[in-house]
């Protein structure tokens, strides 16, 4: 396939580019040219927010793509640019959204796509939901879309930590190594459903030619659902260090930290809808994926 990635140098988009190349696909990427591109990816220098510049750069390339893969579509404006510009060069688009679109009051175990209580407060989740609605309202007229809603994405190339107080914490390995306490709201009782990045990008690629995924939104998570505390205990096991957890009282915490509302709830997903398309579900165990992530960070000298 001929694939166009929006980005190509970030955590998820970089993994997507490398995986697509390994599968034998031809890969182009929209990039501002700031970061080094994966070898084998053909860069198209343009600002994804500049419709004129973006269209001109694609016209110069003169390629019809089997799909556009957008890992960084953030809001309604960017979604409209995707449909307005890319539809002349492809009839297929796969987009990464987030489980943060759901309002915590409407989340359930297991979370599925039938829940329609969404964030409407100008937050990251709200902006992502507005992005989704642009594609939904277009309903495949310009491009057939597939939208995936992961929660926490992990793996080499990203920082460890997935909860308030320790989210994407650069020195988390040192914290565990030194025996410092891990502060978890409610003692880390909330469920999480992390997805290994390689599993996520594999599913993205699998959806491209699967018509059952066209013009649909899917929840997606990894192979394991665990309490948040267990995530940190696994890190301790990998590092052969005991993990000490300090319980942060829930009472009043959300009032003081409203930005964490999407984390102070269970985040576990039903993937029956995705499974019904015939796509193989993510299967990397949390321990195995975290071990690879820790090893990569240790190689960096963390």
Total E-strand runs:
13
* N-to-C series of helices and strands: EHEEHEHEHEEHEEEHEEHEHHH
Radius of gyration equals 20 Å
Mean pLDDT across residues: 95
Instruction: Characterize the main sheet.
Output: 7 strands, parallel
Shape by Cα distribution: globular
Keywords:
seven-stranded parallel sheet; 302 residues; alpha/beta; two-stranded parallel ribbon; 13 strands
Question: How would you characterize this protein structure?
Answer:
The protein is of the alpha/beta class. Helix content is 33%, strand content 17%. The chain contains 10 helices and 13 strands. The strands form 4 sheets. A 7-stranded parallel β-sheet has the order 3-2-1-4-5-6-11, with helices on both faces. Strands 7-10 form a two-stranded parallel sheet. A two-stranded parallel ribbon has the order 8-13. Helix 3 packs parallel to helix 4 and helix 7 crosses helix 10. The two termini are 38 Å apart.
What is shown here, in short?
The protein is built from 10 helices and 13 strands.
List the helices and strands and how they pair.
Elements: E1 2-6, H1 11-22, E2 26-31, E3 42-45, H2 51-61, E4 67-70, H3 76-86, E5 92-96, H4 124-138, E6 144-149, E7 153-154, H5 172-177, E8 181-185, E9 191-192, E10 195-196, H6 197-207, E11 216-219, E12 226-227, H7 228-239, E13 244-248, H8 253-256, H9 272-275, H10 286-299
Parallel strand pairs: 1-2, 1-4, 2-3, 4-5, 5-6, 6-11, 7-10, 8-13
Antiparallel strand pairs: 9-12
